[in-house]
Amino acid sequence: MTQPIENYALLGNCRTAALVSNEGSIDWLCFPRFDSPACFASLLGEVDNGRWKISPHGKVLSSSRAYRDGTMVLETTFTTETGTAKLIDFMPQGDRSCIVRIVEGVDGGVVFDMDLVVRFDYGRSVPWVERVDPHTLTAVAGPDMLVLRAPTPIKGRDHHTTSRFSVTTGERLAFSLTHQSSSKPIAEPIDPYGALTTTEYFWLEFSDRCPDVGEWTPAVKRSLITLKALTYQPTGGIVAAATTSLPEHVGGERNWDYRYCWLRDATMTLLAFMNLGYFEEAQAWRNWLARSVAGNPEQMQIMYGLAGERRLPEYELPWLKGYENSKPVRIGNAAATQFQLDIYGEVADAMAQARRGGLPTHRRSAAIAEVIMPFLEQAWRKPDEGIWEIRGQALHFTHSKVMAWVAFDRAAILTETNKGSREKIARYRRIADEIHAEVCAQGYNEEMGCFVQSYGSTLMDAALLQIPLTGFLPPDDPRVVRTIDMMEKRLMRDGLLLRYETQHGVDGLPPGEGTFLVCSFWLADAYGLMGRQADARALFERLLGLCNDVGLLAEQYEPHAKRMLGNFPQAFSHIGIINAALNIHRSQQPAQQRAHPDADVVEPQVLDVGA
Ligand SMILES: OC[C@H]1O[C@H](O[C@H]2O[C@H](CO)[C@@H](O)[C@H](O)[C@H]2O)[C@H](O)[C@@H](O)[C@@H]1O
């Protein structure tokens, strides 16, 4: 049976990812890329859609798990009536697509069962399984081959490969599963213990550079490792989450594929990396962006594939029943062709911060900006699908216009700093002022005394938190204060924020979903800016308490059922942890020890455009 989302831990090699349950079952795995068809898809279906389980035979008295500190090496410890043993799971770094599982006896003896069910093409294709030698078998379907190497006797029955074995104190048994092209000769085995050492070194070298964030350091470090694991190393692209179709409403149809690179999610990830001093990762993503939008920057998409692919057609997989019957399971994402105005402001902020952080300007930045800004001069007037990617009618979203203001405001400031043409400065400033005035007139509802989701609407939207966070208006502006009050009244559920009011059909989907975690982190940031430090800290601590036992968060949380919802783990939520932790930590430092105000995490940034 599928486990609650929070029972899973992430394994990754900066190319792809797997989810392993607290019972030792890998129920989701795509080889060789994040967006490749899964060979284990039982997370979204049944055992027979593929999984690899290694767990004690018989009754487990207790179990616990943790990542080895600063790494993505997971240890699950099982205690049975006969002893205690550990399962050590990891994906070796490097260009081999492989999972290693080491079973290690700790105390006494433990009998284990292994059950491997390979189903390529998202749980559909039963492979042709052949034994190469008593400890090696291959599973082939079409272009894919998996090679299992097991130190124990293996049997095949009913399209399952099984093994029963025992470990005693100090004994170690290593299993590996490697993906390769089925047309190539079987590759040499990897050395599992050597791979464990190099993989641990890779993660430690990365995470040891994480700065001290006081009491929040462990949570920030885990979020940083998670964001790194969501990065596709060969290109620098960053996926929004490791999964597709984990539901935002159990049994509902709000199920989307997040294994792509959103400009919004990825630029926010870049800012989180840079806020922690990780400029190499930031530069890799900035270069990915410059390549992805090259050629037709005026046709910039809101998301791309891992290598900048432009077409991500959305389709459904009818053979998968969906997570707890949440259908359909979707692959691809139709939001890729939407117009979402906010991305221009987000990318502009990120580029500016990259430059201020000392990253050399990309040779194409100025040229790209020269094409995008004139495009935006017309485009900001159009309705769009907005930050939440609605599937209903396009609207004049207040948040989208605020982000258009961000783009022009920063363009004016930078052109001024660079002593650029007065004409250009005046033009950017005039457009920024025009947008500002329009938002304050049309995005604001006099009767309600607050900003609203879209022009003429009476609905609330948590994206309006970006009004103070981007510097569009000061946090103590009475209109901002009343907007946050209204948000607390209309969007708060058990202290956490919904992203908007889904019951009014704005998004073209059946209503109902969980609270959207990154919005609650933004609220904590806004409280901090408003001087409500105690509220900021209380909300942040509440949010941290929602992390699962290995420090991971999904996109959403359902407070009544007390369970995570949506794709998992999600970059947005972990970005929220990093930025809110930094903001709270800095606010607690004595004034003279604080970084220059320019280092604040949520302040407006300067746009990187050619003057
Ligand atoms: O709500 C409908 C939309 O939901 C998804 O979008 C959400 O996830 C994105 C990736 O994290 C994020 O950038 C966006 O702000 C979220 O609303 C889905 O990807 C869309 O296809 C869908 O229309």
From TrEMBL:
Its EC number is 3.2.1.28. GO terms for molecular function: alpha,alpha-trehalase activity. It is an enzyme of class 3 (hydrolase). Keywords: Carbohydrate metabolism, Glycosidase, Hydrolase. Residues 3-151 form the Trehalase-like N-terminal domain. Belongs to the glycosyl hydrolase 15 family. This is Trehalase. It comes from Pigmentiphaga aceris.
